[in-house]
Amino acid sequence: MKHFLLGTLSGVVLGGVYGLLKTPRTGKENQDMLKNYIDDTTDHVKDVNEKVGDLKIAIQNLTDEGMKLQTEFMTDIQNLSNEYLYEAQPRVERIKRKADKINKDIEVATVNIKSTTTK
């Protein structure tokens, strides 16, 4: 690993020196080109940072909107459920009364059948 890093570092230094010696541009042109490259890269990084900030804001807005919709939906469902139970209550009570009457009729019939069979 040590030899690899040493070789890589040597290659970078020698390549840089060779590039500077063999370039067809003057030192001033190279400086201007490097400055422009750094300025462009800085602008791109700033642009990416702004886009990431915008994305974070959009995600937060989407999350907030989702929570709001979820709350509204749950409230609506609860209201519908309560309304259904309120409307169904009289029917449930009628069914219960009829079931109680049927049970009483069965008890009376059972007593009558027992009394006729024991005589």
UniProtKB/TrEMBL annotation:
InterPro entries the UniProt entry points to: YtxH (IPR024623)
Protein name from the UniProt record: YtxH domain-containing protein
Species whose genome carries this gene: Marinilactibacillus psychrotolerans
